[in-house]
Fold each of these.
Amino acid sequence: MDPRPENGDDRLALLAKSIRQSVIRSLAEAGSGHLGGSMSSADILTALYFSVLKHHPAEPSWPGRDRFILSIGHIAPVLYATLAEAGYFPKEELLTLRKTGSRLQGHPGRDHKLPGLELSAGSLGQGLSVAVGMALACKMDGLSNRIYCLNGDGELQEGSIWEAAMSAAHHHLDRLCVIIDRNGLQIDGRTETVMALEPLKKKWEAFGWNTLECDGHDFRSLLSAFQKTRLETSRPSVIIAKTVMGKGIGSIEGDYHWHGKAPSGEQAEEMIKEVAR
Amino acid sequence: MERFINRGNKATKTGFGEGLLEAGIANSSVVAIGADITASVGVDLFASKFPHRFISLGIAEQNCVGVAAGMALMGKIPVFATYGVFSALRTTDQVRVSLCYNNLHVVIGGAHAGVSVGPDGATHQALEDIAIMRVLPNMTVLSPCDATQARLAVIAAVEQCRGPVYLRFGREAMPDFTTVDMGFHIGKAQLLHEGNDLVLIATGHMTWEALQAAYELEKEGIMARVLNIHTIKPIDESALLEAARECGAIVTAEEHQVAGGLGSAVSEVTSKNYPVPIEFVGINDHFGESGPPRELMIKFGLTSENIISACRKALERKSGQVARNEKRGSEVI
């Protein structure tokens, strides 16, 4: 087991391992799905659901809860695994992923009534607008709920993201926090080859956002960034989390071919062992 | 049945604006989203009265729809209106996924529908919005025929609906003839003129034209039933089938492409259950253009005269069918 002394929180690290292993199992059983991004976002989701978000798994509709929007709907498997780990529904249900009639749709589908899902999503570039709307409603009513939205870096190529970014700054949505899974990869390869995003930090700053960078696989770095966002009083915040596609599974780390692939049963067994190391 | 009288031309967008204000006064959850053309689409009345409930988002319609979804998820009833070409067509993916797939109660106003936006021309004339909005699951599609009905329609959309609603209305001042006591019952066709020779099924500005055609045909002894379809989805199937059975021929009329709009919605019901000859009055697969609205309606064949011509064709086909049926009947014997 890699002790990684720079990880500030062992509890979170163990939870993240469990979540990663659940994702691998559920994808292998489903026979399809998105492994790469699920791995690169696993630590972000662990931090959110076990340290950052105000929420009650036993009361998924509790009005006082913070809201989490998964704009990159294709990494639903890691959201599902995190929700199950947190107690929203039984972990056994993770093996029904993508099957007919399952509450765990391939991309989040609220119509199937899975507890803990805030938004049916899957078409990239839409979730941030929804998060902005939620934050606007809260501001209008003087509510203190915080709104979090996870976006992919490839997803930032969608123009609608920037409409939402402009509007969040214009309306001073200081309780809105975006996290970007900056794994540098997308289906056709490196983001900088397909459609360059850099200078990304400067772009968000120019749009009027409180822009932070962190190591998306170091809990101390992640939690420190989330903490800083709470100091903002007039600007929305964005955390550009540097991540590695496939993180946790040494044999596939950094390999963009695993964006939309699921492991076979055999591969899964090996991968689960790699995560445990 | 008494004839309808034009009380004076009034734009459906004005009715929409008045209805939005009324809905906003009655229900504090109503919020309005502006995409830079607030007054032009009638939202200014609401915005002046409730400035803290009006959200300006600028010329960013895709964001407007997503924001509306987010606000709806927090318990608001958002109304987002801009020109129909932008609120329904530019935003179709957002409407499909963020609104319809999530089944959220948001009212989308499609302003300047049809050719009545006139001089602005093709890019601003929504002629495909009914077709695209009605095929989305969970979507309700409303198309009021005058300003009075537009006011009732937006109130109904806010108070009666539970999911997404697309409400199309026009820019030009047009005959205002319906009355408040007619009510607005989502999903119910309105009988505006009795008759059994054929049925005119119309929506929006074409309903007045259909009435004029019916009044004209009456002089020749042809009694045309007139149904106003203010709810294109869910469409009143039983009223359509009853009309098909009792009248035997249909003419539909809309300020919209013939493909996919009201005419198609009607044929889907009748061809499957009780096929009768049907003629479509609408735009025949071309874009609009610049010009005064009335001239465009004449140029594109959207007047009561055009409806009358369609009626004559429909009646010919109806009697042809009757003759064929009788011939077949006598052959069997």
Amino acid sequence: MSEIREIIKGCLNGNRKDQELLYRRHSAKLYAVCLQYSGNDDEAKDILQEGFIKIFENLQSYKFEGSFEGWMRRITVNTALEKYRCRNNLYKVEDIDQIAETDAEPDGEDYTGLEANDLLDIIRELPPKYRMVFNLYAIEGYSHKEISKMVNISEGTSKSNLSRARIILQRRVGSYTGIKKKIANG
Amino acid sequence: MADGRANIDLVFRNGLKDYEVLPPLDVWENIHPAIGKKRSYFPFLKAAAAVAVIVSMSFLAYRWGMEVSENRLNEMIAANQQPVIPAIYPAPSVSASGVINNRKEVSARGRQVAVETLNVEEHGSVAQNLPENTGINVTRRILEDREAMPGIQDPFATKYAKVTSPELEAVTYQVLQDNIEIPVMQRWSVSAIASPTYYSQISSSGNDLAKQVMESDQARASYTGGLALSYKISKRFSIQSGLYYSSMGQEVGGVNAYSGFQQYDNSKGDHNFELTTASGTVYTKNSDVFLNSYSVPERVQTYYNNDVFDPVKANLSYVSSTIYQDLSFLELPVLVRYKVIDRKMGVNLIGGVSYNFLVNNSVYAIMDGGRYPVGTTEGLNPMSLSSSVGMGMEYRLSQNFSFSLEPTFRYYLNTFNSGRESGIHPYSLGIFSGVAYKF
């Protein structure tokens, strides 16, 4: 804790080495968060870049209360949310029925054998509005009431989007595990 | 099925919990210059303040050293000084114009010098040959000292006996005030000043909303400039006033502005949204704007909240997530200046108050590089009072002109607004520089 305190102080004093050290230490974890919230790599890069600029700009407001990593994650998620809101009108939302037709049936509840990168690929294939609600609810732990304010949707829409996201994810996870099992059995 | 759905949440939550992916190398290359650029004015302010302090301290030390040396020298002179014996030391000389000058020091202290001037050619025209504007009081009298002092032979009487007239007329000049030219005190000065200013705020309120608002609102670099008039009361004290124009602004982050709301605006009130900021509450004057905040939702007060209106569904155009607040003031300062060091490079202490009159109040967002008007900050006091403390250097460029550099801290005694955020007191740090003309 004292080490990160020193690094933060160095960053606040404009020390380039400390700034780079902070970035090197935390960028990989935050980039995974960015990928989780974005549909493509360029968008994830933009979120990471803007998120880190905000982290450095607001470093003086971090009061060393609570996890520093959690604080950085919140800023990154908020940046992703801003991006989402900016581009929301541009997204063409995929219809749930079409998804249902093209996806394989869920393979029970056996989700073993899935790697983190598989999960990331699956979550990134979700339509943006489902992905955003699922991430905020299931991963970040926000309530529907909070999500409705953050994303500017009603609580009902938030619940509905989450439900649809879960259905899609279950089917795709089932599909992934089925394929993996087939590969494993030869 | 419900368990299964909850289970899928856990699969992703746990599966992605510690997942890391190395970002592309060029991301840091883009972050690095951006953060350097943003913070560049802070080191400048710190460096300028540090230079001012170091130079001021150096001159204080220099002056202290000089005073110590002078005191020691005076003590040494006093110890070695012999009793003063009044005497006349003739030192005759003949000028090119034929005027014979004979200066006689009558006091070893140098306090009083009697100068005898003998004009061989023109009796009684001594005054014409005196240097002008020397501040010397001239008294004219016939010296009879020579006859009155037995044992002392006047060399004039012997050496210049052949050219002397029957009666030599002599003039005594008495030099007052150490025989030094006394400059006329220049009491008035007019100066043009300018300063980059950094504003921030201190919250004495325990209100959670005020704290959250202060965390999200960021002050922008501001400036102050104007004319100052000062009057020297005494050698070291002067009083200063003038008229300054100061501009300050802040960025309100985490508030989304949308355009295209006018078609949905059915309200008959004068504004649709109220936005709480550190400087006061913003009322929207533009009926086309829609505001909301996802980070601090309570700061946006409106009938068109998330439950009744969705800007995304209504297909409003997103403008930005930052609102800019600009305030400008005309300042009337009343400052007292004390000259700590009165030399070519002087050091001043400054303190006083300023009356700040609000002259501009605008709130806007940036859209396509231009300003998209949002409204105004309401409840602002038309006049606020601030206190100033500073320490500055003054460098005398010539007899009439001087350059000054004064880091000044300013604290607002009353808040900008009298509303619910009244616990927030702004303060600022500025480095005033300017050129003064003395007369």
